[in-house]
Amino acid sequence: MTAAMASSRVPALGKDLVGLEFLSQEQILMILDTAEPFKEISERRIKKVPVLRGKTIVNLFFEASTRTRVSFEFAEKRLSADTVNISASGSSVIKGETLVDTARNLEAMRIDMVVMRHGSSGAAKFLADRIPSNVINAGDGRHEHPTQGLLDLLTIRDHCDRVQGLKVCLVGDILHSRVARSNIYGLLKLGAEVAVCAPKTLLPSAIGDLGVKVFRRIEEAIEWADVLNILRLQLERMEEGYVPSLREYNRIWGVTARRLELAPQDLLILHPGPMNRGVEIDSDVADGPHSVILNQVTNGVAVRMAVLYLLAGGQPGSAEAAKKEAGA
Amino acid sequence: MSAKALLKSGRVVDPSQDLDEILDLLLVDGIVASIGKDISAPEDADVIDCSGLIVSPGLIDVHVHLREPGEEHKETIETGVQAAVAGGYTAVCAMPNTDPPIDDPAAVGFIVAEGRKAQAARVYPVGCISVQRAGENLAPIGEMVDAGAVAITDDGNPVMNSGLMRLALEYAQAFGIPVADHPEDLGLSAGRHMNESIVSTRLGLAGKPNAAEEVHIVRDLLLAELTGGQIHLQHISTEFGVDAIRQAKARGVRVTAEASPHHLVLTEEAVEGYRTEAKMNPPLRTAKDVAAVRAGLADGSLDVIATDHAPHHYDEKESAFEDAPNGLVGLETAIGIIMTDIVSEGVIDIATMIDRMSCGPARAFGLPGGTLSEGAVGDVTVIDPDLGWTVDPNAFRSKSQNTPFTGRELKGAPNRTIVGGRTVWTR
Ligand SMILES: [Zn+2]
């Protein structure tokens, strides 16, 4: 750590956020609780507090992801950090460069924090093990996307007042989804019952061993669940032969208003985006009364502010004070 | 000029003659001249005291990647055979998946010549099954055998086309060589990086199921049975695969098979934390599979221990798991790992170890050696069963250091390697 980063107190989260698998229930709750006061900052006229003033953060995106990058960028700016965006498409900095060299360059530049999106599972841990900066995983391959998991948890808690005991079903391409793994770990740690529903071609063969139920058909999942988190079906999955056609996918596994009408209860509807309307989710569900998809976007900024704040050494109980210090 | 060496008072363990006793061994002009009690030293002989040591027929590794030509930054024939003799091996079979591949007699001749030049372990070239390892047309197998090839394989790749595999098993019979196959159905494994399991699910890595390997093991056994050809199945890693080979042997199918040290001692948990040193193909599997590979080694279903020595440059392994190449270096750790984790654990005894590392390989590939009977080649490995040592990749003679065994404390190590009566390495 650089001198500026050094804190006499033990950081509540450790150095990095690589995944939810290795966080405790207490740590997850601490992040969610810390996000609460940050939510309100986004509602102010001047949406800024000075808690990360003087910190440098690099948003390093080896894969394009406008929504996640923009969400992080807002979070960083609202905490007054200095940020630089590097993306594979727009920059020669990381073109053809190995991950090791990227790590060494970042280290040489004395960056305080790195937010990284990478196409390879394990890339975040690889970087975290090699540089003293805080590393936040913004999605690594099909491994984890912890801030998405956290914002989903926060959104569910907002609308159901709890996570404990809720029945949450993840619907769609679990096999290739980093969002699915982060959700499963986070939900189980907070005491939810978790299920997945997808064609078997899109489920890891050992998924049941993670402690989740498996539904073969969407109708069964809808009947069981309190919350559906609907995952994007990447269009290339059809080309790769995992599903016969998008039309069939929508007809057999799509979440439609008609199917939801059959549910014995109202279901909360989440989708991490970007949506394929008419494939995994129909528009009347996405835009319907039980959809909290836009709340997820709002909560994304607050959760990321909380993670940045805590990794920078901020203490969980002080977020409220930090907010007031800004004197909005 | 006559060269004579007398190995005194070693524990001679030679399963080919059912020998296990304290004896002297005299080598003259590169061959075993005599073996017995109290052989008196000829005047001009080098006398080597072997008391407390095991004297074994020279170890043979039928599966190594020497990387030359084409990837000399990973290994060369020169460094590869130096690593071999430092690991107690007197002979190695060089896989043909080089660049260009060893698919014609000139290329085979190059391997033979470079092997001789290195003057360490014997190097036996293995030729490709198919031209350019492309899996389409048979390579000139007869000409390659004339040039020195001892077997054929497309290792690194399986032979995906069953029709081509049938042709190879038929055609090779004229030359009395085995067809070695890397059993893997790429339709079930391409683009995948470790064993398919709860570990791969958690790590978010695409997994190769056991079935990817087993489909081809069973296919190859059926084709060997159909053709009467001799199949050699490489690096067996699954329980069902071992069983299928056991049953085929009982039916009289001409099959030999390998166990690799890493599949005998490591499970898929070794890749936790995305450790690329533990990335290999076939992947490390579960404890159940490891137990089955051990049982297969013990009962002879698996005939040979072969390291699948696969050197890679450090910066190739220093990458995201999915981008890292498969394989580990094995020549310099094999004896220590096998003696510590397999022999000391009682899975097999010393005699069986020597059978699987010397006699079995010589039988499977029809090679000289694998015995200390009078008149045999004077290839001898002297082993110190009590020497404790720690695996330090920086001390390897191999050009590469990619091993998951760094820091392992082992007991048992080669003490001296003799090729053609000449000591080529001592501790
Ligand atoms: Zn192979």
Q: How many DSSP H or I helices of chain B?
A: 13
Give the uncertain stretches of chain A in residue-range form: 1-10
Q: What order do the SSEs of chain A take from the amino end to the carboxyl end, as H and E? A: HEHEHEHEHEHEEHEHHHEHHH
Shape of chain A: globular
Mean pLDDT of chain B: 97
Percent of residues in β-strands of chain A: 5-15%
Describe this structure in words.
- The complex is a heterodimer of chains A (328) and B (427).
- The longest helix of chain A has 19 residues, at 293-311.
- Chain A has 13 helices and 9 strands.
- A 5-stranded parallel β-sheet of chain A has the order 7-6-5-8-9.
- Chain A is α/β, with parallel strands linked by helices and 328 residues long.
- The two termini of chain A are 31 Å apart.
- Chain A is globular.
- In chain B, the strands form 4 sheets. In chain B, strands 1, 2, 3, 4, 5, 16, 17 and 18 form an 8-stranded mixed β-sheet that branches.
- By secondary structure, chain B is α/β, with parallel strands linked by helices.
- The longest helix of chain B has 18 residues, at 210-227.
- In chain B, helix 2 (105-118) runs parallel beside helix 3 and helix 7 runs parallel beside helix 8 (239-250).
- Chain B is globular and about 65 Å long.
- The model of chain B has no long low-confidence stretch (mean pLDDT 97).
- Chain A binds chain B through residues 21, 98-100, 118, 120-123, 125-126, 140-144, 178, 181, 204-207, 209-210, and chain B through 196-198, 200-207, 209, 273-274, 315, 318-323.
- The complex binds zinc ion.
- Residues 155-156, 182, 234-235 of chain B line the site of zinc ion.
Question: Which terms summarize this structure?
Answer:
heterodimer, A: 328 residues, alpha/beta, five-stranded parallel β-sheet, four-stranded parallel β-sheet, 13 helices, 9 strands, 39% helix, globular, disordered N terminus, B: 427 residues, Urease, subunit C, domain 1, TIM Barrel, 2 domains, eight-stranded mixed β-sheet, 18 strands, 30% helix, 23% strand, binds zinc ion
